[in-house]
Amino acid sequence: MNNACDVLILGGGPAGLMAAIAAAERGAAAALLERNEKPGMKLRITGKGRCNVTNAAGLESLIAHVPVNGRFLFSAFSRFGAFDTIRFFESLGVPLKTERGGRVFPVSNNAHDIADALVKQLRRLGVAVIRGRAEQLQAADGRVRGVVTEKGEVYTARAVVVATGGCSYPKTGSTGDGYALARQAGHNIIAPKPSLVPLECHEGFCDRLMGLSLKNTALEVWDTHAQKMIYQDFGELLFTHFGVSGPLALSASSHIRNIQPGRCELRLDLKPALRPEQLSARLLRDFGENPNKNFINALNGLLPKTLVPVVVQLTKIPPGTKVNQITKEQRQTLVDQLKCLRLTVTGFRPLEEAIITSGGVDTREIDPATMQSKRLPGLFFAGEVIDADAYTGGYNLQIAWSTGRAAGAAAAEVCVCP
Prior knowledge:
The chain is α+β, with helices and mostly antiparallel strands. It has 12 helices and 18 strands. Helix 1 (about 15-25) packs parallel to helix 12 and helix 10 packs across helix 11 (about 330-340). The longest helix has 22 residues, at about 395-415. The two termini are about 25 Å apart. The mean pLDDT is about 95.
């Protein structure tokens, strides 16, 4: 590396890796500037180490699952969508599989296979990987000319792709560097905030349930001020000392736009397979089989052990009550609690605990077809640094692949076309 190249990509995450590959495939001399020891650090821990590569969905479905600036991604998704991503990774020798909800994973369930395949492709294409952190853009004659690193090293380039990520998971290198670089070029930054993040709840019993994972739970998210449901889902929920986490909570967080304490309520159906009348009949049957059992001991076959005393307390039925003495009204109260356990959301966990950062470079200042800056020619953006974020399920990685592909390809055309 002689400190000069055609396309310089800042950041070795999924968007940066894809941008470097796309640029090199089109004949540009590409280099990747990465602050970590090796590229793909955050990618290697996504999906609990399994890497939800994409979601096997068509164009309109992809856009529908991007609540923040989804239409901005129309061109990028059109040119390189979910099925293009699947073919791309399988062409690199990584077999994939599709699971519930269209979620696509490597057959090996190992995120390293995805990251390693991308790094190997970089080597095959001759992309230089440089250890460093960009601190300042260089510009001359109205266009980008390169960057200066925090160590004062100067790297010149005819095009620069900023793919430095957001602010989530700062230990992986996502510390908001790209926002500062974008501001240097005159870009507006939409204030970063957490998305796909655990939720803090008011109810003290969450602490008592810490570590409990509910595998098959139905969730509704309600705006109690507007008295309307804003989201519903089914899946896994994890109780923590502060509230709830797990796939259901993370997905719910991306639908909560007004986080005023107490305004948002989670309603959990602990027995979604049973209608209220069916659940009532089952309780009546269970109680009839052991009529002299204390109420506190009669729910172990219905609920996880740690959840039983919480539900009993919420019903206000004395725990020592014999089940043959429980009235029809008390049984209905129990049914109501099992079908609608309420949690009051008080806030999001800190941005550092979020999977995705919402906010970033204003999409109105980026060409949606090329990802090129409208402020500074030759400057491109890709991935989480852009103000576009999606629901959980592989959609955010697809944003990275699609925008990275668009930025890298367009940057190469700037360099190789006469």
